[in-house]
Design a protein that fits this description.
The strands form 2 sheets. Strands 1-2-3-9-8-5 form a 6-stranded antiparallel sheet. Strands 4-6-7 form a 3-stranded antiparallel sheet. 38% of the residues are buried. By secondary structure, the protein is of the alpha+beta class. 20% of the residues lie in helices and 33% in strands.
Amino acid sequence: MSNPQQLRYSKEHEWLSGAEDGVSTVGITEHAANALGDVVFVQLPEVGDTVTAGESCGELESTKSVSELYSPVDGEIVEVNQDVADDPSLVNSAPFEGGWLFKVRVAGEQEELLSADEYTAYTAG
């Protein structure tokens, strides 16, 4: 499993893209998707919601368990991925592409996030 180098990662297994016009995309990592198993339902934050880094902002339900979705940054939700709401299996089949979860207008710095190499080492340990 490879983690794209251009992304940043949280210890809660979310990824964050670089900001374009202050907006970053968030999803869960392939590691998390594999650990969850087949995702059958997602509860995403709503457009306009304010999220706080490290706090729950939704849920992912799989055939094995329910897992909290955490925001890796502070900010405001500007878009949610309706395709994932309609077809949650995208989280498993394309976690870094079509399986993204939401876009957030980032407020402040993302100091606690890991590089791809740091995240790979974190999940290997």
